Amino acid sequence: MTRDEQLEALVAAVLGAGKYRAVSPDFVRAIGARELAARPNLKAAIKATKNALHQAGGAFLDAPIDYGRALARLREAAGDPEAFRAACRAVMALHTSTRERLPILDQFYAVALAGVPAPGRVLDVACGLNPLARPWLPFPAETVYVAYDIYADQIAFLNDFFVLTGTPGRAEVRDVIGRPPDEPADLALILKTLPCLEAIDRRAPERLLDAVPAPRLLVSFPAQTLGGRRKGMAAHYETQFRRLLDARGWPAERFEFATELAFLVRKG
Ligand SMILES: C[S@@+](CC[C@H](N)C(=O)[O-])C[C@H]1O[C@@H](n2cnc3c(N)ncnc32)[C@H](O)[C@@H]1O
């Protein structure tokens, strides 16, 4: 098999496996090409690609999400703001990353974004199910919301959510390592994502931060491992992140929450 044929075989094998069926083929191809170059054979490269996809996103989905059911639940609650928020919380609980934020959700955006003027457009980079936190964002209904992630089924669901809620904007399947966002915005949310990108490509976090065309970034890090251990993890992320901010001369406000450490960064 030529290298191109091997790559197509790898992509087919990975996308054929239930867990990664909906992942962006471009993203699988980019990781697969790198792994084929680094591993002794196709089988080892397929295994390494699946491992990388697990670290990037698979680890945060403990079971496949029934998006049809999730949307039905949201539809039922639409029209009653309290019931709708409860339904959003229930759906956010299906993704580990948003589930970890639920205990702090009432404070998280209200505190970290208190001084931020109403944005015309917000980018949610590697969004997971975070767009369902839209009712908690202290912004007017006209704010345009643009969200990116690598799972096509999740992105389709988020577009349905935007239609249901009348939120202007869209969700898009996009590998933000290979194609960082290029749509100008007033604020970018980069929540608990940099460590996932770094696991795939060591330089990806700084490339993303430099490229994102927004003057303000809300960047956060998990305060504990997926297994629940704390192990000084946030301190480690903070040291690394501050080095990156210092090199660019970007000021940041720091917000510490029980499950997450956040920084509101001014670029430039
Ligand atoms: C820890 S979760 C954070 C999700 C969300 N930002 C939040 O805080 O709830 C990491 C997310 O990054 C996404 N992701 C990983 N690599 C990506 C890439 N190269 N491009 C876009 N999204 C990516 C995963 O699918 C997953 O949804």
Describe this structure in words.
The chain is α/β, with parallel strands linked by helices and 268 residues long. The chain has 2 domains: 3-56, Orthogonal Bundle (Helicase, Ruva Protein, domain 3), CATH 1.10.8; 67-266, Rossmann fold, CATH 3.40.50.150. It is built from 11 helices and 7 strands. It has a 7-stranded mixed β-sheet with strand order 3-2-1-4-5-7-6. α2 (25-38) crosses α3, α4 (67-77) packs antiparallel against α5 (81-92) and α4 runs parallel beside α8.
Keywords:
268 residues; alpha/beta; Helicase, Ruva Protein, domain 3; Rossmann fold; 2 domains; seven-stranded mixed beta sheet; 7 strands; binds S-adenosylmethionine
Note the topology.
Layout: H1 3-16, H2 25-38, H3 42-56, H4 67-77, H5 81-92, H6 96-101, H7 105-112, E1 121-125, E2 144-149, H8 152-165, E3 169-173, E4 187-191, H9 194-200, H10 204-211, E5 216-222, H11 233-248, E6 252-256, E7 260-266
Parallel strand pairs: 1-2, 1-4, 2-3, 4-5
Antiparallel strand pairs: 5-7, 6-7
Helix pairs in contact: 1-2, 1-3, 2-3, 4-5, 4-8
This protein binds S-adenosylmethionine.
The parts where pLDDT drops under 50 for at least 5 residues are none
Name the CATH superfamily classification of the largest domain: Vaccinia Virus protein VP39
Would you give the CATH topology of the largest domain?
A: Rossmann fold
SSE-based structural type: alpha/beta
Tell me the number of strands. Answer: 7
Q: What number is the mean pLDDT?
A: 94
CATH secondary-structure class of the largest domain: Alpha Beta
